[in-house]
Amino acid sequence: MAKSLRSKFKRKMRAIARVKKAPKEAARLNEAVKRRDQFDSTPQSVADKTTSVQAQEAKANQGIETMETDQPASKATINLRTMKTADGKFPSWMNQRQRKKYSQKKKKSKTQQGKKKKGIKVF
């Protein structure tokens, strides 16, 4: 298909680069195979892994004491439908695109409430 001098030169240079990079790539692949074989040779079931993780977490949590406060744990003050806080503002972590999306969604729902649906009535 492509028979211009430029494309022939590019094909030639890609072939040279492939030859040059081949030993590194082969070594990387052999290393990955060795790691896989090593991983497969030490079979640990998923249950053993999870129990060991849980045991480590339990040991870590033994020394930690919880701090008691007079106030109850605060709940999220964001309305999930409108994504606004109790003040009527969007949260600070929300970006402008998301704010615009929710405000347009609110406008659309208001306009659709006022319109009546036209169509054929079935008795």
Automatic annotation (TrEMBL):
Gene Ontology, cellular component aspect: nucleolus
Composition skew (Basic and acidic residues), residue ranges: 22-39
GO terms for biological process, alphabetical: dendrite extension
Bias (Basic residues): 97-123
Biased composition (Polar residues): 40-55, 69-82
Annotated spans, Disordered: 20-123
InterPro entries: LLPH-like
GO function terms (MF aspect): basal RNA polymerase II transcription machinery binding; RNA binding
Entry similarity comment: Belongs to the learning-associated protein family.
Name assigned to this protein: Protein LLP homolog
Taxonomy of the source species: Eukaryota, Metazoa, Ecdysozoa, Nematoda, Chromadorea
